[in-house]
């Protein structure tokens, strides 16, 4: 049985490639750094849990010793708290080429349409450097360059499109000059299988895209129609300056570990246009990619799809509100701790208990409010908020039950924040 190894096997593209290769009879192994994400993607698959940029040449030789094809679906959009473009797009290819120089296998590189050494973003430039290393050093290779990938799974840019298109009442007008082409995830995965089977020649560099292009505004309209939402009542213009501000804010969040599709690299790529030329793929005998209308027709547009679209922007809003609520709660207490201690003192609580309780609680509130903004600790912070809120509620019943009857309802108002934190903890998934 032929064996395929897929780098980044639990990503949007990598997971589709693993399914398609397995369906075609390959014995497939996936490589990625997160065991949790790997098992969530495909618990039955064979996984090698490694941080791909840290694998050296010797380990690559060991991992790929009996492989017939390697598919590189690993990548990152922008440098950030967890990503290094040079490492993942260039260093990995350099080591991979060195390790496979004497091995009889094909390397299928999934790049991106529009890459070039002089491109407007480091994403495209680093991808171009990796492609060059592969084409100059490997013996048997194919480089596939997809445009905007549409899939039943919502992730990254495709998730953002769904969220924007599903906004209630409004549909903002952004990037009026941008032209976009799309490719169905199954067409991309089929192209990878064709390359893995040797149905296209070595040395092929091909864009994978639908035959026509459309404006970004038209793409949003067609996705909204596909989702089943009514036409928007308002189409406010979104100035370029505001878009740059959004990109800058998303870049800052990127350094906190959040891989937002609103980062400046994605916005710049959309602004430049996401287009390709299918001529090379067709010339090599590749099956044409379906147009946007056929892609949308083949994707589910059900209740889950509409709920996701409407919920897309509520999750970051919920995280921001929780961070503000908990930080403000702790800060207000620290501004006037004596007042808080008086509340406990008036209920015969000893000072040696009241002081650490008030100050410790305030510091814990601020810590949780900050932790939820850091992506690796966000879920833990949300769970901590639930736990600490329960402690506050139980403590108030034991020490100050009269607070539950206060006309302003200070304790009752804690309960909605518990529900909000639970919602964040349960829905905070990347893949």
Question: Can you tell me about this structure?
Answer:
By secondary structure, the protein is an alpha/beta fold. The protein has two domains: 3-312, NAD(P)-binding Rossmann-like Domain (Rossmann fold, 3-Layer(aba) Sandwich), CATH 3.40.50; 316-427, no CATH class. It is built from 18 helices and eleven strands. The chain has helices spanning 12-23, 35-41, 57-63, 85-99, 122-137, 157-165, 185-196, 216-227, 240-254, 264-272, 279-283, 292-298, 303-311, 314-335, 337-345, 351-371, 378-399, 414-427; strands at residues 3-7, 27-32, 46-49, 69-72, 106-110, 141-146, 148-150, 179-180, 182-184, 204-208, 214-215. The strands form three sheets. The chain has a seven-stranded parallel sheet with strand order 3-2-1-4-5-6-10, sandwiched between helices. Strands 7-9 form a two-stranded parallel sheet. Helix 5 links the parallel strand 5 (106-110) and strand 6 (141-146). Helix 3 (57-63) packs across helix 4 (85-99), helix 4 runs parallel beside helix 5 and helix 14 (314-335) packs across helix 18. The longest helix is centred in the last third of the chain and has 22 residues, at 314-335. 37% of the residues are buried. Keywords: Membrane, Signal, Transmembrane, Transmembrane helix.
Question: Which fold name is given in CATH as the topology of the largest domain?
Answer: Rossmann fold
Uncertain spans, ≥5 residues at pLDDT below 50? none
Q: Which range does the strand content fall in?
A: 5-15%
Strand order of the largest sheet: 3-2-1-4-5-6-10
Helicity level, as a percent range? 40-55%
Radius of gyration: 26 Å
The CATH architecture of the largest domain can be named as: 3-Layer(aba) Sandwich
| Terminal CA distance | 30 Å
What composes the largest sheet?
A: 7 strands, parallel
Superfamily (CATH H level) name of the largest domain = NAD(P)-binding Rossmann-like Domain
Query: What is the count of DSSP helices, taking H or I runs of 4+ residues?
Result: 18
Q: Helices and strands, in N-to-C order?
A: EHEHEHEHEHEEHEEHEEHHHHHHHHHHH
By CATH reckoning, the class of the largest domain would read: Alpha Beta
Count all strands and give the number.
11
Tertiary shape:
globular
Average per-residue pLDDT, rounded, comes to 88
Number of domains: 2
User: What would you call the structural class?
Assistant: alpha/beta
InterPro entries: ComplexI_NDUFA9_subunit, DoxX-like, NAD(P)-bd_dom, NAD(P)-bd_dom_sf
GO molecular function, one term: protein-containing complex binding
Protein name: NAD(P)-binding domain-containing protein
Keywords: Membrane, Signal, Transmembrane, Transmembrane helix
């Amino acid at each position: 049985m032929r064996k395929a190894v897929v780098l980044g096997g639990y990503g949007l593209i990598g997971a589709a490639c693993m399914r398609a290769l397995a369906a075609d009879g390959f014995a497939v192994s996936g490589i990625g750094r997160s065991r949790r994400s790997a098992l969530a993607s495909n618990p039955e698959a064979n996984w090698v849990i490694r941080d791909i940029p840290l694998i050296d040449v010797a380990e690559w030789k060991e991992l790929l010793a009996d492989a017939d094809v390697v598919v590189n679906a690993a990548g990152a959009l922008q440098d950030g708290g967890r990503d290094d473009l040079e490492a993942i797009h260039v260093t990995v290819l350099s080591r991979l080429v060195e390790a496979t120089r004497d091995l009889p296998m094909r390397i299928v590189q999934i790049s991106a349409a529009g890459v070039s050494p002089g491109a407007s973003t480091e994403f495209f430039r680093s991808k171009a450097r990796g492609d060059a290393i592969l084409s100059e050093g490997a013996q048997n290779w194919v480089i596939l360059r997809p445009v905007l990938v549409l899939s039943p799974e919502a992730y990254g840019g495709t998730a953002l499109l769904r969220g924007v298109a599903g906004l209630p009442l409004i549909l903002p007008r952004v990037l009026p000059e941008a032209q976009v082409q799309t490719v169905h995830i199954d067409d991309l995965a089929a192209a990878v299988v064709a390359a893995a089977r040797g149905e296209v020649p070595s040395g092929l560099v091909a864009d994978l895209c639908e035959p026509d292009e459309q404006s970004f505004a038209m793409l949003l309209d067609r996705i909204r129609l596909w989702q089943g939402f009514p036409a928007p009542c308002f189409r406010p213009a979104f100035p370029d300056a505001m878009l740059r501000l959004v990109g800058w804010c998303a870049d800052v969040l990127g350094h906190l570990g959040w891989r937002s599709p609103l980062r400046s690299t994605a916005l710049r790529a959309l602004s430049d246009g996401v287009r390709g030329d299918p001529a090379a793929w067709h010339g090599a005998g590749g099956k044409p990619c379906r147009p946007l209308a056929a892609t949308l027709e083949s994707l589910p547009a059900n209740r889950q799809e509409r709920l996701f679209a409407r919920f897309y922007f509520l999750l970051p809003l919920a995280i921001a509100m929780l961070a503000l609520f908990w930080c403000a709660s702790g800060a207000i207490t620290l501004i006037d701790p004596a007042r808080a201690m008086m509340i406990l003192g008036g209920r015969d609580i000893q000072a040696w208990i009241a002081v650490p309780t008030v100050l410790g609680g305030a510091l814990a509130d601020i810590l949780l409010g900050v932790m939820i903004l850091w992506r690796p600790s966000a879920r833990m912070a949300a769970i901590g908020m639930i736990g600490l809120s329960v402690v506050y509620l139980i403590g108030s019943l034991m020490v100050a039950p009269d607070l539950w009857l206060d006309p302003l309802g200070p304790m009752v108002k804690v309960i909605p924040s518990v529900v909000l934190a639970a919602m964040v903890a349960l829905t905070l998934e990347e893949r």
